[in-house]
Every structure is written in C-alpha cells, then in structure tokens.
Specification:
By secondary structure, the protein is α/β, with parallel strands linked by helices. It has 8 helices and 19 strands. The radius of gyration is 20 Å and the shape is globular.
Length: 390
C-alpha cells in the first residue's frame, strides 16, 4: 500500500552447537527436543517455499518472532508445553537452522508484566518467566537480536539495563558474535560484512512506556551515517511507526510513542540521502537538527531496506514515498473491534490455536535485486506473505 507524504500527513492528522537435523521426514529436533508433527509440517512447507523463491541468489534471512506474551514460568525441555507460546521459540530456531539464516530476531513483548491488570508483580513471579525465555534461547549458536517491548518492564521492576544484560548480552555471550551494543544493551546493530547488510535494533520503551530517548535516536542517526557504501540497512523495534500502521481502532490518538515523528524523519532522510528538507512528517517540518538530535545523510551511500515492528498484533505494510514500514502480528490477542482498516489479523480469521499452530515469519532479503519477501510459517501461510522492493 503506497501513500504520498501529503496523504500520510492527512491521515495522521485525522487519527550449530544446537543443530537442526532430520531423523526422518517427520522428525525434526532442536537441542534434542523433537518437534510435534504439526510443527514439522508447517516448517517443511515454509522451507520449501523459501528455497523455491531463493533459487541461487544470495540472501540475508532471519526468522522473526514477536509478541509472545507468555506468563508461564520456566521451560521444560523434557516435555515442552507447545500450548505455551514461549516454547515456539524452538520452532523459530528450527526455521533458522533449516533455512541457513544469518540471525534471529525477537521484536519484544515476551511479557514480564505477569499481572495484566494489576500493580507491579512480585519479583518471585517475574524471574521464573525471564528464566524460561533465557532457557529456550541460551543454546542457540546464531546471533539473536532482542528489541525490548512495552510489556517487558515488569511494570517498572525490570530495567532496560537488566533486559540488555540478560538477553542481548547474556544470550549471545561467549558465542563470538560481533554485536555492537549501547551501554544499556537494548539498542545496537549487527553487521554481516560478507553480504553488506546491517540490522539496527532499537528499544521503543527506553523513555517511558512508549518513547525513544534523544541518546538512542542520535545513535540511530550516527549508525545510519556510518554505514559503508553499498551496504543495505534495516531497522527492527517493538512499537510501530507510523502509528496508523497498526493502531487499534479504539486507540486512534496521533501517536503511542514519544518522538515517533523524529524517528520517522531520521529514517526517511536516510532512505533519501538528505540533510535538511522543506517538508517533513512534523508540522512545522523537522530539519537535520531537532530536539538536540543532529543528522545529515546528504553523503550517505548505503540503502535503506525497511523497518520491521511488532506491538500491533496485526499485519500490515505501508510504503510512504518509497520507504517501507511493516508490522507483523506475533502471538498477541486482538479484539475483533480493534482491527484498523487496511490491516489483517489471521489469528481471528483462522481461529489460531497455539497448541497446533505457529505464527513466525522469515524475512528474506535479496540485496542484489533490492527485494524483500516475508514468508509466514504457520497461521496464514502464503496468504500472509509480503513482498516489496526498496
């Protein structure tokens, strides 16, 4: 779906240590854990579609999971509860191994709030949930990038620094991955030099429930500007931008994230290799210096692939003046009356059941052809797939 900037402004104003192996055609295992037959079938189907599309082209690939929202404590590798969406990380890892992926992406809201409507939960209820997520990821040999979600703060009891130390630092510790991290560890980037690809991962809750700090946005601008000539750069984070990409109909306020428009302007300027501009997403327009954040991409030589989000529990893609913004649904629930026009919610359409279906995407980029294809493994299948150019 494509929009001019003027139309968009009008709309916003209105609103390998753990290898996957096949013991037989119907048996896949990760960390020695056998996968259920329904998961094997879904993975094999998705892998076949991916290989057919890939052909002999070089690709960057990463399985994306988001909004797992599991409050279940721990993880029992001896007898996994496949109805607990946390256990579906095993499927994400199986997809990564079967497709020869470069890294794994978790877009946040594993969910450490525990008490959905209550006050801050007691820590003895939060720690076992965190430990369970560490356990399903800790043996993964590939780099795993985590974006912090708005439900990953345990209602103020779990800091960004704790999250970064546990996941982006802790899960990847000792595996030889050269991941560049901020001091708190919740934003940074990962480079794949052989494929000239950079993934930037951000924290959309480092300033309040939903908000990006000046320091983080300056890091983003500096990271964009330093991208080498001929490289391809993408962004992943939890809360979507623009807000209308996947806002629920009952929450049609202009934005749910502080400095959303500044973030979008930085991305848009990088994608178009601009310094200052006349017309921006803000009113009055933002130029290459705003809110003490400075940027100038007039000499940039890298290409912007697109931005990938969770949070919405919906699936939708928008192209605004050639820049791609994509939200993917993950496992979170969505009331039927909240589905905004232009978005889909296959979980409702197909009566999604975690005990017999998964909701994982494989993002695949062909840098030489400047094309991206997002494959759906599980609920929605090919009908939930997406392809765009950049």
């Amino acid at each position: 779906m494509k929009f001019s900037r003027r139309t968009f402004l009008g709309m916003t104003a209105a609103t390998a240590a753990a290898r996957l192996h096949a013991a037989s055609d119907s048996a896949l295992t990760v960390d020695g854990i056998p996968l259920p037959d329904w998961a094997v079938a879904a993975i094999q189907d998705g892998v076949a579609r991916y290989r057919s599309w890939k052909g002999t082209d070089e690709t960057v690939a990463f399985p994306l999971i988001t909004d797992i929202h599991s409050h279940a404590p721990g993880f029992n590798a001896a007898a996994p509860n496949w109805g607990d969406s946390k256990s579906h990380v095993i499927f994400q890892r199986a997809i990564a191994h079967a497709t020869g992926s470069d890294f794994l992406a978790n877009l946040g809201d594993m969910d450490f709030d525990v008490n959905i409507l209550g006050s801050a939960p007691e820590w003895d209820k939060v720690q076992p949930v965190i430990d369970g997520f560490v356990k399903v990821y800790e043996k993964e040999p590939l780099p795993t990038l985590f974006s912090m979600g708005n439900h990953d703060h345990a209602r103020g009891r779990y800091t960004s620094k704790q999250f970064g130390d546990t996941f982006n630092r802790g899960v990847n510790k000792g595996k030889g991955h050269d991941i560049v991290l901020s001091e708190c560890g919740t934003w940074g980037y990962y480079d794949i030099p052989a494929k000239k690809f950079r993934m930037v991962f951000l924290n959309t809750s480092d300033e309040g429930y939903g908000g990006m700090s000046r320091g983080q946005l300056q890091f983003l601008a500096d990271t964009f500007r330093a991208a080498p000539e001929g490289w391809h750069v993408a962004v992943m984070q939890h809360i979507q931008a623009p807000h209308i990409l996947g806002c629920w109909r009952r929450f049609l306020e202009p934005s749910s994230m502080k400095r959303e428009m500044v973030f979008m302007q930085i991305v848009d300027d990088f994608a178009h290799h601009r310094g200052d501009l006349v017309q921006g997403f803000h009113n009055p327009p933002i130029t290459g210096e705003y809110d003490k954040i400075k940027w100038d991409f007039s000499n940039a030589k890298a290409s912007f692939v697109g931005a990938f989000f969770g949070h919405t529990h919906l699936e939708r893609h928008m192209n605004i003046d050639g820049v791609n913004w994509t939200t993917r649904p993950g496992y979170g629930t969505t009331p039927r009356d909240c589905i905004v026009m232009g978005a889909r919610c296959p979980k409702i359409e197909l009566k999604f059941n975690r005990s017999r279906d998964m909701m994982i995407d494989l993002v695949s980029v062909k840098p030489s052809k400047r094309v991206v294809h997002v494959f759906r493994f599980g609920c929605g299948g090919p009908k939930s797939e997406l392809e765009f150019t950049y």
